[in-house]
Amino acid sequence: MKRNKIVGYGELLLRLTPSNHSQLIDQATSLNLSFGGSESNIISNLSNLGHNTKMITSFPNNSLGKSANRFLRSFGVNTDDIIFRNGRIGTYFIEHGASLRSSKIIYDRLDSCFSKEKVDDKVWNNIFNNCSYFVLSGITPSLSKECQDNVLRSVKIAKSNKVKIVFDLNFRRNLWNEKEAFDFVSKIINDVDILIGNTGSISDIFGYKYKSSNNFLELENTTKDACEFISKDFSFDLIALTIRNQINATYNQLGGLIKVDGKYFNGKSFEIDIIDRIGGGDAFSSGIIHSLIKGYNSQEIINFSNSCFALTQTIKGDINYFDEEDILEFGSDNYSGHIKR
After folding, report:
1. In 3D, which of 337, 289, 281 has the Cα closest to residue 309?
2. CA distance 260 to 263
3. CATH code (residue 218)
4. Mean pLDDT of the 22-41 span
5. Has residue 104 been placed in a domain?
6. What is the extent of the structural domain holding 46?
7. CB 56 within 8 Å of CB 42
């Protein structure tokens, strides 16, 4: 397979989860430690699928930072340009939902190392040499003025090096409000080649109005409408949107669609029991990028990406640990849950 360098810029956080999967944080007496973050999840997934990847981030110069760095390297991610400095690592706590009770995330990431780091233009110019894709999300600019400045400069330099910009809208109302998100995203949206998100993020940032539904076909139609809405003002090589029919916290119907050259392609949807709610959208994004690099046709792209989305939600953690063969097999109707012998 041709080795394409894919670069991500974002914060890898310390993830803390009650050791008992069904406990509230109030009840927990012990927490499991791992790492996760939107851009780093995508980069780790792509590295796991055999791609040449690099992550740009910042860690504290202590055992937590070194552990986070080893976590990325365990997937084969190049961490040579990661910056170590005095400070703290951003942290989030995940409380898994059950039945009608929603999952909940608590952020503790104010003034983290990453949020205070300024990446020099010389670093960006060197990084984007022979780079194919640059992965960003709306989470990073919500963290600080320094992060916003890094994103603006990196996008400009990436475009000058003819690098494709992949941007996941990823609106987080716990980090900034709708106007702040719109004002910033408007500065880079015309440089984005591949836009990723969902109906909710288009609504939150760009003001798209829609009615919620628990019918997957209706959600699919609404997602197409959201695609049309965003396409009126902006042009992209590809738009990819996830669709989640949340029947309850632990049973969802998952799917997605893409728009390429004015045409829509819907993939197979999957009804699954959710083991871990986090990381599904990032798996979908990595599926899109992997499929484009592999030269899949449009229908194959959305089929593969939907399979990544659903399969990742059947295991614990943020990362899609499955290889291409596993994902293709899952998407080929061979997913009934029988024992493989």
Report:
1. 281
2. 5
3. 3.40.1190.20
4. 93
5. yes
6. 7-330
7. no
Mark 152-174 as b/e (b = at least 16 C-beta within 10 Å): eebbebbbeeebbbbbbbbbbee
Express each pLDDT in 64-83 by its tens digit.
999 999 999 999 999 999 99
Closest C-alpha to 240, from 192, 288, 190, 298:
288
CA–chain centroid gap for 286, Å, is: 8
Lookup: tokens for 312: 């990742």
Give the mean pLDDT of 229-241: 98
Q: Quick check: 243 and 218 in contact, CB under 8 A?
A: no
Token pair 């090589």: residue: 237
Q: How is the chain split among helix, strand and coil, in percent rounded to 5?
A: 35, 25, 40
Q: Which of 185, 173, 42, 11 is nearest to 105 (CA)?
A: 173
Q: What is the mean pLDDT of the chain?
A: 95
Q: In this structure, is residue 340 part of a structural domain? A: no
Per-residue pLDDT at 4 exceeds 80: no
Q: How far apart are CA 89 and CA 243, in angstroms?
A: 32
Q: Is residue 284 part of a domain?
A: yes
The residue assigned the tokens 């959305």 is: 302
Distance CA 139, CA 154 (A): 15
Look-up of token digits 């440089």: 191
Is 214 inside any structural domain? Answer: yes
**Is the distance from CB of 202 to CB of 234 less than 8 angstroms?**
no
CA–CA–CA angle 152, 202, 266 (5° rounding): 115
Phi-psi region of 76 (alpha: psi -120 to 50; beta: other; left: phi over 0): left
Instruction: Specify the pairing of strand 131-137 against strand 5-9.
Output: parallel
Domain count, the chain: 1
